[in-house]
Design goal:
Number of domains: 1
Order of helices and strands: EHHEEEHEHHH
Number of strands: 5
Structural class: alpha+beta
Distance between the termini: 34 Å
Number of helices: 6
Radius of gyration: 13 Å
Length: 128
Amino acid sequence: MLNIRAHHLLCTSNFVGEGYSDDFSKNMTSVINLLKNNPKVKLKASVDDICKKCPNKFGNFCKDSDKVIDYDKKVLKAIGLNAGEIINWNEAKKLTCDIIFKNDRREEICGDCQWNNLCKEVEKERLK
C-alpha cells in the first residue's frame, strides 16, 4: 500500500517529468508507475511516498505545509473522502476526474501553486 497526499491525486494526473529536482522527478515517475497497478492507497494530508525526495521536505514536514495541507483538505472535501481512508488507486483517480477535472475545479483548489501554469498547459493538451 502506498501513502498518497490527497492533492497528489491532481499532481499525478498532470505530471510531465518536471519537478523540484531530478531526484524528486525520478521518485514521482517511480510512484506513478507503481500506481498503474491499482494498489490500495492511504489518502493523507501530510507527507507521503511522493514527498520522499522533495527538497522542500524536512523530516515529516513540508516547507509549505499550510498551503499544501489546504490543498489536501480541499481535494478530500471535493471527492467526499477523509485523510486516513484506504481506497483503490483507480477509484480515487476516477473520483478526482469525475468531480474535479471534468468540472474544471482543479485551479480553485491549487491555483496559487507554482506549477499552476504548467498544469493549465497539460490540461489544455489533454482536451485536444
